Amino acid sequence: MTARALDELLAEGVRGRHVLVRSDLNVPLEGEGASLAVADDGRIRASLPVLHKLAEAGARVIVMAHLGRPKGEPEERYSLRPAVVRLKELAPFTVKFAEDTVGDGAKSLAADLQDGEVLVLQNLRFDARETSKDDAQRQAFAEELAALTGGNGAYVDDAFGAVHRKHASVFDIAAKLPAFQGDLVRTELEVLTRLTDAPQRPYVVVLGGSKVSDKLAVIDNLLGRADYILVGGGMVFTFLAAQGYKVGASLLEEDQLDTVRGYLAKAKESGCSFILPTDIVVAEKFAADAAHEVVRADEMEGSRFGASGIGLDIGPDSAEAFAQQIHSANTVFWNGPMGVFEFDAFAHGTRTVAKALTGSDGFTVVGGGDSASAVRSLGFDDNAFGHISTGGGASLEYLEGKALPGLIALDR
Ligand SMILES: Nc1ncnc2c1ncn2[C@@H]1O[C@H](COP(=O)(O)OP(=O)(O)O)[C@@H](O)[C@H]1O
Ligand SMILES: O=C(OP(=O)(O)O)[C@H](O)COP(=O)(O)O
């Protein structure tokens, strides 16, 4: 079976019906407290077309989304309010915000929705049941979310960035309501198919960022698919440590060292080469104005900061080597910034890799909330890349050929 498209739901008619839409509004924020604001609205813009289509057709739309990784209870810094403020500025329809997810406030706002209005629920991850490993917990939460539609409702999954999550709003809810695939998910999959079906070689995958344990897991399958895997960002240090080098106070997944050693050994047999940085920008502390210096990757603790130094970017030689590799590729997929690009002093690696992609004659895809935000904040135009995907982990898991919960759920 294949997923039913949003257009099939629209053909059925949605006027007066409540439609629950899972969107990915997990955007980077800047500022503090009451002045927290959206730093990059790419995911909000990408979510707009489906909401607009439904609102125009007279649906009473309820948006479910998450922001960050709160621990199952409300935390102001993870409120979806700033994202909703931005959505209101962009949307040609009425947008309301519920301060809760399935509580009395949300229930009453959902019941009062008018045709063509959109209600955004508070961060789903303020309820521990959303991400629970216990099926019964997630299903109970999905049931309560579905109940907001008051019967005769429908569900649309448009959150491509979260299709790899077995969460209540992505997986379980599709069994509670007639379920449809949003246009964003559909388009993303169409584009990514170009990378899974006979990609033009050489095929280079560039990995970085900070969700290290999530993304290390995808490498196993990528080894059989890509020709080169370039490793930067927070992921590097587990690779360096796996080879016996000291990495100071850098991001390190100690429990993944054996896994990484396995990858390094497997790469030799599978015809895929890892390209690791040969130099690193080591900083005194994690701060925009931190003192820093470039050192050899195999001598990180030789910097003047010793064992307390933190690697915050790949060094200039490595950035140049990565750029050369990208120039000689015909297909490039990139997820995860090469360093802490949010701080100018540590943005060079990310900028160099982004520039190399824009100069490539091959098919280039940038995936991930922060990666997309990085290229935009560094001044690159979206059109300079073959495709900017809203999903980092989601695209990687799709590229490794894994069955993704959000897609399985719609195929049931
Ligand atoms: N060396 C590093 N140490 C710590 N954090 C890093 C490092 N390099 C990159 N990062 C951080 O990784 C974050 C993005 O990671 P991630 O969420 O995995 O990417 P994406 O959202 O594109 O999938 C950025 O906020 C960036 O500051
Ligand atoms: O930001 C996201 O993924 P990404 O950083 O891999 O692009 C998605 O919103 C999923 O978030 P999660 O990785 O906290 O489940």
TrEMBL record:
<dbReference type="GO" id="GO:0005524">
    <property type="term" value="F:ATP binding"/>
</dbReference>
<feature type="binding site">
    <location>
        <position position="165"/>
    </location>
    <ligand>
        <name>substrate</name>
    </ligand>
</feature>
<dbReference type="GO" id="GO:0043531">
    <property type="term" value="F:ADP binding"/>
</dbReference>
<comment type="similarity">
    <text>Belongs to the phosphoglycerate kinase family.</text>
</comment>
<feature type="binding site">
    <location>
        <position position="342"/>
    </location>
    <ligand>
        <name>ATP</name>
    </ligand>
</feature>
<keyword id="KW-0418">Kinase</keyword>
<feature type="binding site">
    <location>
        <position position="43"/>
    </location>
    <ligand>
        <name>substrate</name>
    </ligand>
</feature>
<dbReference type="Pfam" id="PF00162">
    <property type="entry name" value="PGK"/>
</dbReference>
<feature type="binding site">
    <location>
        <position position="125"/>
    </location>
    <ligand>
        <name>substrate</name>
    </ligand>
</feature>
<feature type="binding site">
    <location>
        <position position="165"/>
    </location>
    <ligand>
        <name>(2R)-3-phosphoglycerate</name>
    </ligand>
</feature>
<dbReference type="InterPro" id="IPR036043">
    <property type="entry name" value="Phosphoglycerate_kinase_sf"/>
</dbReference>
<feature type="binding site">
    <location>
        <position position="311"/>
    </location>
    <ligand>
        <name>ATP</name>
    </ligand>
</feature>
<keyword id="KW-0067">ATP-binding</keyword>
<dbReference type="GO" id="GO:0004618">
    <property type="term" value="F:phosphoglycerate kinase activity"/>
</dbReference>
<dbReference type="InterPro" id="IPR015911">
    <property type="entry name" value="Phosphoglycerate_kinase_CS"/>
</dbReference>
<keyword id="KW-0963">Cytoplasm</keyword>
<feature type="binding site">
    <location>
        <begin position="66"/>
        <end position="69"/>
    </location>
    <ligand>
        <name>substrate</name>
    </ligand>
</feature>
<feature type="binding site">
    <location>
        <position position="43"/>
    </location>
    <ligand>
        <name>(2R)-3-phosphoglycerate</name>
    </ligand>
</feature>
<dbReference type="GO" id="GO:0006094">
    <property type="term" value="P:gluconeogenesis"/>
</dbReference>
<dbReference type="InterPro" id="IPR001576">
    <property type="entry name" value="Phosphoglycerate_kinase"/>
</dbReference>
<protein>
    <recommendedName>
        <fullName>Phosphoglycerate kinase</fullName>
        <ecNumber>2.7.2.3</ecNumber>
    </recommendedName>
</protein>
<keyword id="KW-0547">Nucleotide-binding</keyword>
<keyword id="KW-0808">Transferase</keyword>
<feature type="binding site">
    <location>
        <begin position="24"/>
        <end position="26"/>
    </location>
    <ligand>
        <name>substrate</name>
    </ligand>
</feature>
<comment type="pathway">
    <text>Carbohydrate degradation; glycolysis; pyruvate from D-glyceraldehyde 3-phosphate: step 2/5.</text>
</comment>
<feature type="binding site">
    <location>
        <position position="125"/>
    </location>
    <ligand>
        <name>(2R)-3-phosphoglycerate</name>
    </ligand>
</feature>
<dbReference type="GO" id="GO:0005829">
    <property type="term" value="C:cytosol"/>
</dbReference>
<feature type="binding site">
    <location>
        <position position="215"/>
    </location>
    <ligand>
        <name>ATP</name>
    </ligand>
</feature>
<comment type="subunit">
    <text>Monomer.</text>
</comment>
<feature type="binding site">
    <location>
        <begin position="368"/>
        <end position="371"/>
    </location>
    <ligand>
        <name>ATP</name>
    </ligand>
</feature>
<dbReference type="InterPro" id="IPR015824">
    <property type="entry name" value="Phosphoglycerate_kinase_N"/>
</dbReference>
<dbReference type="GO" id="GO:0006096">
    <property type="term" value="P:glycolytic process"/>
</dbReference>
<keyword id="KW-0324">Glycolysis</keyword>
